[in-house]
Design brief:
The chain is an alpha/beta fold. It has a single domain, classed as TIM Barrel (Alpha-Beta Barrel), CATH 3.20.20.70. Helix content is 31%, strand content 14%. It is built from ten helices and 15 strands. The strands form four sheets. The chain has an eight-stranded parallel beta barrel, surrounded by five helices. It has a two-stranded antiparallel ribbon with strand order 1-2. Helix 1 packs parallel to helix 2, helix 2 packs across helix 3 and helix 3 runs parallel beside helix 5. The radius of gyration is 19 Å and the shape is globular. It binds P-hydroxybenzoic acid. The site of P-hydroxybenzoic acid (PHB) has 5 residues, from loops.
Length: 367
Amino acid sequence: MPEKLLNPVKVGSTTLSSRVVMAPLTRSRAGQPGDVPTELNVEYYAQRASAGLIVTEASQISRQGQGYAWTPGIYTDAQEAGWKKIVDAVHAKGGRISAQLWHVGRISHTLLQENGTAPVAPSAITASSTKCFPVNPNRATASFEYCSPPRALETAEIPGIVAQYRQAAERALRAGFDFVEVHSANGYLLQQFLATGTNLRTDQYGGSLENRARLTLEAVDAVIGVVGADRTGVRLSPHFEFNDITDTDTEAITLYLAREFSRRGIAYLHIAEPVWVGGPALEQEFRRQLRAAFTGTLICCGGYDADSAEKLLADGLADAVAFGRPFIANPDLVERIRRGAPWNEADRSTFYGGGAHGYTDYPTLAP
Ligand code: PHB
């Protein structure tokens, strides 16, 4: 039995029942109109409440921050009420849950933006090889389309972006979430600011590594101001090269941020390893540097099974491991790990959109 993985762990001031984390997973099943979490979403999350911690699917903090059809938001009263039902159901089953706050930046389309305006980005550089998934003008169907050319945010608009994070954190707090996770990974807005290829700004948000990291830190500080450092997490994805991201400084900026997060005493740092999109494995030396740079709970995610996760913990390179696709197909993943039982395979055709099929109908083990 993978003993370390199944041990409790204290994260901030919250104790998780195990080190098995459910990764954020876009499932595109929010209620329409309004991108509001539904009773079906409540059932899905409640089924997975035995995870040590659930990180919600990425949830846009504004309409501007949306890049895909039917993803849930966390910026309206109805969305907040929907999330509260999810949080209450997870808590009723003894689980813990973190709200992932998402702004896609340039990975969006005019069809998703208010009045058909351009998506926003640090610089006006199109993610020209990347598709997003906008709703069509009929609002009922969606299709994969190349991302629209973005416009560069004015310096004076940045406080408004930070305010979107603050307001979403206030909603998450009212909904009862245990943690709030700032999504600064996978090529979305905050990583667009971090990365040298997407940030050509000449103001205090561009140029030096410290300047490129500034918006992520301001968003994190806004969240800390609302929920406290001991309930704040951040997701980063060093060496991520999808969504047209290139970064000549990826390890240096990751380590700089890890040290800044340590200074602030945030609860956890969640690393999305590039293997999940076919990228390279992180080097051991970089893992060691990251471990040394961050003093809170370090969560790693990307293609782990129970044995490789246990080994990562045994090597002291992480405190918890997040599983994505395995949690789609195995609501009782923790119990399967405990019993050494086989894992169901996830069906790709039902990852995004649709209803209960491929969402809440994966089988659990017999008691
Ligand atoms: C996606 O919807 O495909 C998606 C969302 C958030 C991520 C990665 C992928 O961090």
